[in-house]
């Protein structure tokens, strides 16, 4: 199997684990609120992010790297950069959700599918191909349908502005992984620095209330959700992203990442009920809707068109960038 084909498959799997995180995070928040009634959800988000990424960093260090933490300057710089981009993006995204609708947030966040080719055109004078442009447009329409975007609520308030800022940070994360100067970096060491950076960035959100933070994670249900978030949703998804994204273009990666809300919708059809039974909470399953089918279908179609075998010269050019 060619490296680009393998990379695309692994990035789709990463999207699936990111999609899994949405209902799990919601269930975790419900478990935390049961332990600390009336707690601010912004504070609980900070607890989740610090615990999630600090534990992930510890596992990478002790299990995957077996204590061999020394990294090159390039590995440290790349991990620090993607950690700042990803961490700040998540912070702005979560805070913005409190001031806009979920559908608007979902649409603006997946706007990276547009900002990536725009950024590449400005930075590298590299215009997307006609096929890429058509697939981007198709995916953007699919995201709008899937999120049930209401144009009457699409205004530039605090929530929308923060979500756009988050999308720009996520764009930086994706583009940073494409830089040729980082070819040959150990993705495990890059991920270690990334996870540690995100934990440090979000630590101030909970630093003044450490006992309340510990109390919010005192239930078995909270640790069940946290174990899923740390395992497939963090160690799996980000290690795969950092390892395999450099083998595809950032524009193609942005299209693949549009599958994230599709997987989130699919998991929301069955997982809430299972979590409710395991954790003793009331979290009903979502139901199949026409926007889910139509929007998800358009995103899948865009990815099929984009991942159709490329001409040999384009394929060879991409592989040669990575010395393959």
Jot down its keywords.
324 residues; 74% helix; disordered C terminus; mainly alpha; globular
How would you portray this structure in words?
It is a single chain. The chain is mainly alpha-helical and 324 residues long. The protein has one domain (3-307). The protein has helices at 3-35, 41-64, 73-97, 102-109, 112-124, 130-146, 158-176, 187-202, 210-216, 220-244, 250-257, 260-267, 271-279, 290-306, 312-321. Helix 3 (73-97) runs antiparallel to helix 7, helix 3 (73-97) packs across helix 8 (187-202) and helix 4 (102-109) packs parallel to helix 7. The two termini are 13 Å apart.
Number of helical segments with 4 or more residues: 15
Q: How many structural domains can be distinguished in the coordinates?
A: 1
Rg from alpha-carbon coordinates: 19 Å
Biggest pleated sheet: none
Q: Distance between termini?
A: 13 Å
Net shape: globular
Give the % helix.
Answer: over 70%
SSE string, helices as H and strands as E: HHHHHHHHHHHHHHH
Number of strands: 0
Low-confidence stretches: 313-324
Give me the secondary-structure category. Answer: mainly alpha
Give a quick precis of the structure.
This protein is mostly helical and 324 residues long. The protein has one domain (3-307). The protein has helices at residues 3-35, 41-64, 73-97, 102-109, 112-124, 130-146, 158-176, 187-202, 210-216, 220-244, 250-257, 260-267, 271-279, 290-306, 312-321.
